[in-house]
TrEMBL record:
Bias (Low complexity) ranges: 1-13
Organism: Corynebacterium meitnerae
GO cellular component: type II protein secretion system complex
NCBIfam families: competence protein ComEA helix-hairpin-helix repeat region
Disordered: annotated segments: 1-24
SUPFAM superfamilies: RuvA domain 2-like
Residues passing through the membrane, by range: 46-66
InterPro entries associated with the record: Competence_ComEA_HhH, Endo/Exo/Phosphatase_dom_1, Hlx-hairpin-Hlx_DNA-bd_motif, RuvA_2-like, Soluble_ligand-bd
Keywords: DNA-binding, Membrane, Transmembrane, Transmembrane helix
Name of protein: ComEA family DNA-binding protein
Coiled coil spans: none
Amino acid composition bias (Basic and acidic residues), ranges on this chain: 15-24
Length: 228
């Protein structure tokens, strides 16, 4: 009985203690003296700094979006990929057609045209020997197409080296004579003459490719128009 009384008394005391220590909201707050800050930033200065940071972030995002490829665009070619290259390729070429044709002279063709296109405009005569002409050959600007008559030998009865008359001799033609060949200008003609003077007469037409400025494509266009 005494133990029960003591426990009840202790519980009452504990409850009373809790009641006394419960905050009422009217207690006086403790005053704390905080240290004075060393650096003070005015509100306008802080706002300007925040604005600069935001502007830099927006610029970085914009630059990244410009450099990133557009998935919807696919593998689109750059705008500058063909602008400079295509400007160096002529749209038309001019060739000379001589021999057994109704209209000998200069013929203007689209770039990539073939000998057959040139003869279609020059209109070969009935006696023209078209077997001696490579109709499928792609013409080059400045090329001369010589259509022989049937039974006529190349250069027969004509002096070698004369432009427009039979084949041109690599060993006797002058630099001016050589300029009638397709793709041969003054510089290339001079290089051909200089090569035969330094290395000796040509012994094979294929030696033209040893001359500076004459590659496989240019040689292919002139090989049937020259002789030794």
């Amino acid at each position: 009985m005494a133990a029960s009384t003591n426990a009840s008394t202790a519980s009452s005391a504990l409850d009373r203690l809790k009641e006394l220590t419960r905050p009422t909201g009217e207690e006086e707050l403790m005053r704390v003296n905080y240290p004075t800050p060393r650096l003070r930033i005015a509100p306008r200065t802080a706002a300007a700094a925040v604005g600069c940071v935001v502007a830099v972030c927006l610029a970085a995002v914009g630059w990244s979006s410009l450099r990133s490829p557009d998935p919807a665009a696919g593998d689109a070619a750059p705008l500058w990929s063909t602008a400079a290259e295509s400007s160096d390729i002529p749209e038309q070429v001019i060739v000379a057609v001589v021999g057994a044709v109704e209209q000998p002279g200069l013929v203007t063709l689209e770039n990539g045209a073939r000998v057959a296109d040139a003869l279609e405009k020059a209109r070969p005569l009935p006696e023209a020997d078209l077997v001696s002409v490579n109709l499928a050959q792609v013409v080059a600007d400045g090329q001369q197409i010589h259509v022989l008559a049937q039974g006529q030998a190349p250069g027969a009865g004509q002096e070698a080296g004369q432009p427009g008359q039979g084949l041109i001799s690599l060993n006797s033609a002058t630099a001016a004579d050589l300029t009638v060949l397709p793709g041969v200008g003054d510089a290339t003609a001079a290089a051909i003459v200089a090569h035969r003077e330094s290395a000796g007469p040509f012994t094979a037409v294929e030696q033209l490719m040893d001359v500076k400025g004459i590659g496989p494509a240019k040689f292919e266009a002139m090989k049937d128009l020259v002789t030794l």
